[in-house]
Design goal:
Blueprint lengths: L1 E10 L2 E11 L4 E6 L5 H9 L6 E6 L5 E3 L12 H6 L3 H14 L6 H16 L5 H11 L16 H13 L5 E5 L7 H13 L3 E5 L3 H7 L2 E6 L2 E6 L2 H36 L6 H13 L28 E10 L2 E11 L4 E5 L3 H11 L7 E6 L5 E4 L14 H6 L7 H10 L16 H15 L3 E5 L7 H13 L3 E5 L3 H7 L2 E6 L2 E5 L3 H6 L1 H10 L5
Helix pairs in contact: 3-4, 9-10
């Protein structure tokens, strides 16, 4: 068990939280939510002991092991993949190294034998003989094939390193598990595996995530970081969201009733104050009036952008034809014989394990890359707007403030008009004077979405649009794309985002496409598709 007693943290004059008293118990998963900058990841660092609080303490039950998802992807480059995972249990690795050193001694003494016996007993008690098989099982579940288990960490891609570090955090059945954005860079199969793993995990989990579906699947409690406080709510993310909205409405309704009561009392006092027969009642009501105060309803620090895409004109029936597109990148076949026809009103989600292939298809359709084979043709009535997964070329070394940056893409150069679109995306006042080159990842995506809204396009192409966004921006974008009357092609690892928007799923497999008119959940549940996916990955159905 892990508890916080009067925990406080302050940076200069800024108070992140004050007097936080929470208890995290075994058998539960706690989701930490809050606006960007609220201090979610910082709270995990306080719990892990990476940073010290300015007040209060964090207490861990003596003897319990705490495991953290490491964020430095290069820290283990000198180690083998399998050993990196086992290093998640520091004491186990110490025993293994100490044993090896003892047995390697040329003058192995009786004293060494006794020490080795003690180590062997502790090693067996920690299930050390199963360490390599457990590490391999975790790696396989997270999509790291066996041939990579003996490779050096430095040989892996950044996405693969993230998966290995996640396996490291899960290794050895830790008593307390701290996970910061564990679903980043995972495909749907790995996320499903992780959800099942955490669902069966009997100890304590504390997780920060922007993935709403993941939070709904694994969390039994939500910790809301807001107003310098961390409040605990039973239930998953959706339950918290609905409850918080209901509580806010109830508070508003209560104040409305109080306002009506105040008006009633004021009218009575004004009418009868001069009437001797009624003066006692008027005085009584005056005292009642003095006692009534409107409760301050704290508006949430969360701010939801306004996202709405309005096509300038409706597209015709001929939108897009893709015929036999194939593409090799650095000797790897990322697209093979991709063919499909886009219909008006289609909202197509591209899925599949090869993120490079999906990004490459988007770039080909936007004319930024050329296919090795195959053709595509846009309909003459279509206009396209594109949100790339890597938007650095739009911002790096751009010496413009946001008003002038967005003005480049606006048909109306009027500053008030441009500021209106920036305001929708929460860039108002001084925020609109920021330099484009210094924006955070989330701010850049919001600027790109402003650019897309200005375009008036009737076909949107979005490559991982929820990356870098907070939950509020993801919710606003999700709702805006549900309401969009045009046609969409998009890539996303956010399950809820895909489920609520897409009406058609195209799986880019190594041998072509699996194309279904269905929601995402229907697609995943389809037995035929399950068999095809199982065959594709070489697994049993």
């Amino acid at each position: 068990m892990i508890t916080t007693n009067n925990l406080s943290l302050q940076f200069g004059k800024r108070v992140l939280y004050k007097d936080v008293n929470l208890k995290f118990t075994p058998g539960n998963c706690y989701g930490i939510i809050g606006a960007n900058g609220a201090g979610k990841s910082t709270f995990l660092k306080l719990l892990s002991g990476e940073i010290e609080p300015t007040g209060g303490v964090v207490e861990v039950t003596p003897g319990e092991r705490l495991s953290v998802l490491q964020q430095d992807h290069y820290a283990f480059d000198e180690y083998e993949v399998l050993r990196t995972v086992i290093m998640g249990n520091k004491r186990l690795v110490e025993i293994m190294d100490e044993k090896d050193a003892l047995y390697a001694k040329p003058d192995f003494s009786d004293e060494d034998g006794m020490k080795a016996s003690e180590l062997e007993a502790e090693f067996a008690e920690m299930n050390g003989w199963d360490a390599e098989s457990e590490a391999a099982r975790l790696l396989n579940g997270l999509g790291i094939p066996e041939e990579e288990h003996t490779m050096q960490m430095s040989e892996l891609t950044p996405n693969e390193k993230v998966r290995v570090l996640l396996a490291q955090a899960l290794f050895g059945n830790p008593d307390i598990l701290l996970l910061d954005e564990p679903t980043n860079h995972l495909d749907v199969e790995s996320i499903n595996w992780l959800e099942e793993f955490l669902g069966n995990f009997e100890n304590t989990v504390i997780v920060v995530s922007h993935d709403r579906h993941f939070l709904n699947q694994v969390c039994t409690y939500i910790c809301d970081v807001d107003f310098g406080e961390i409040r605990l709510y039973a239930g998953n993310y959706d339950f918290w969201y609905e409850s918080s909205q209901l509580a806010l409405q109830m508070a508003k309704d209560a104040n409305k009733k109080k306002e009506e009561k105040i008006k009633e009392l004021q009218a009575f006092i004004q009418r009868f104050a001069a009437n001797a027969a009624k003066s006692k009642q008027a005085t009584s009501r005056k005292k009642m009036l003095d006692k009534i105060t409107l409760d301050d309803i704290k508006p949430s620090s969360r701010r939801y952008p306004y996202i709405a895409f309005t096509p300038d004109r409706e597209a015709g029936d001929q939108l897009l034809t893709v015929d036999g597109i194939s593409k090799m990148v650095d000797g790897e076949q990322v697209l093979k014989n991709v063919s499909f026809t886009l219909k008006r009103g289609d909202k197509v989600a591209f899925v599949g394990p090869n993120s490079l292939g999906k990004t490459m298809l988007m770039k080909i359709l936007m004319g930024e890359e050329e296919a090795d084979e195959g053709t595509f043709k846009w309909g003459v009535t279509t206009t396209q707007s594109y949100l790339p997964s890597d938007n650095s070329e739009y911002f790096d070394e751009i010496d413009l403030n946001l008003v002038d940056w967005l003005r480049q893409y606006s048909k109306d150069p009027d500053e008030t008009f441009v500021r209106g679109f920036l305001g929708r995306m929460l860039f108002s006042g001084e925020e609109s004077q920021k330099k484009a080159s210094v924006l955070s990842g989330g701010e850049r995506v919001r600027c790109m979405l402003s650019r897309m809204m200005l375009s008036g396009a009737n076909v949107l192409l979005l490559d991982e649009p929820t990356n870098h966004l907070d939950l509020e921006s993801i919710t606003a974008l999700n709702n805006g794309l549900i309401d969009f009357k045009g046609t969409m092609l998009f890539v996303s690892h956010d399950h809820q985002f895909v489920q609520t928007i897409a009406n058609r799923i195209i799986d880019l497999t190594p041998n072509g496409v699996i194309d279904r008119v269905a929601t995402y959940d229907e697609f995943l549940a389809n037995e035929t598709v399950k068999a095809q996916i199982a065959e594709k990955y070489g697994k049993k159905k």
